[in-house]
Specification:
2 domains, 14 helices
Length: 303
């Protein structure tokens, strides 16, 4: 319990730090009132909009007011959508959640399968799969996305290149996200399994006549799971936080695309809401991974 309390406090401090840094960076980056008013607006019009939004107050006053509202669950009002920033964010979250869940599932299956095959069989199988993993890791996600659009949308006309009208629209962005994430899972799975192979319990199980397949499923995978869980948690946090490049390439109406639009428009409440969610997701995934350690390996204790 003490460990959970300490880690929760550390997580809260991390979220506060991320919110503070982004708040200061955005408020120093430019004047949102000028963007809202438009290029033809006069200085007086810009000033009136700034007063209306409270942007004329000292920065520390704006910051303290923002934190006070945040504690009550008030994330502010979107400058562009004229809606609560939280409502704007939630309207896009379901698209990112759907894409992240399918992409993460595909990456997890491919990563575990490749890592297991490389560790167990070695030789030609390992060299072929390692070439595939290295190739996937070296490809920029935006370039792969454009290549998939060129092949399957423009040339073959099999799949849509953008939008979210049907399940077919998810295939290309899902493959793009998974291809970027599964190499790390494959590498860590392979290395973790190879590290466990020389262990005493493996030799004992083989001496007792236990089949290799059962040894790998029952013992090796479980004992090699700790680093795999850590990497998987970080990957999931990254995906749910918003795959900006993938969503932009495929015009997927999720949090990633919203982030780009909000930053370009200096829509401060929306950007800050996205940052809070991303920070909470990241530290939450790390905390969950730490708690799973004791479940996967009873030898792990927290102090």
């Amino acid at each position: 319990m003490r460990f959970v309390v300490i880690r929760t406090a550390q997580a809260a401090a991390s979220v506060w730090g991320a919110v503070t840094i982004v708040f200061l960076a955005l408020h120093l980056a430019g004047n949102p009132a000028a963007i809202i008013a438009g290029p033809t607006a006069t200085a007086e019009q810009i000033r009136l909009i700034a007063v209306q939004l409270g942007l004329d107050r000292p920065l520390y006053v704006q910051y303290l007011a923002y934190l006070a509202h945040l504690v009550t669950g008030d994330f502010g009002f979107s400058y562009q959508a004229q809606q609560p920033a939280l409502a704007v964010f939630l309207s896009r979250l379901r698209y990112t959640a759907a894409l992240a869940s399918t992409g993460f599932t595909l990456a997890l299956v491919l990563g575990l399968a490749c890592g297991l095959l490389m560790a167990r069989f070695g030789g030609v199988v390992e060299r072929i799969l390692m070439a595939v993993v290295s190739g996937a890791q070296s490809l920029p996600s935006f370039w792969l996305g454009l290549l998939l659009i060129l092949i399957f949308s423009v040339t073959l006309h099999w799949l849509p290149s953008s939008g979210s009208e049907s399940w077919k629209s998810m295939i290309l962005p899902t493959v793009t996200m998974a291809s970027f994430l599964f190499p790390a899972l494959a590498r860590i799975t392979r290395q973790s399994l190879l590290d466990e192979l020389p262990s005493e319990y493996v030799r004992t199980a083989r001496a007792k006549g236990m089949p290799d397949g059962l040894i790998w499923r029952k013992h090796l995978l479980r004992n090699a799971a700790l680093p795999i869980v850590t990497i998987a948690a970080l990957q999931l946090a990254y995906m749910i936080g918003g795959a900006v490049l993938t969503e932009t390439v495929f015009a997927w109406p999720g949090v990633g695309q919203l982030t780009v639009q909000a930053v370009q428009q200096l829509d401060l409440p929306v950007v800050e809401t996205i940052v809070i969610f991303a920070a909470v997701t990241f530290v939450g995934a790390n905390l969950l991974a730490d708690l799973l350690y004791s479940v996967l390996d009873p030898r792990v204790t927290f102090r």
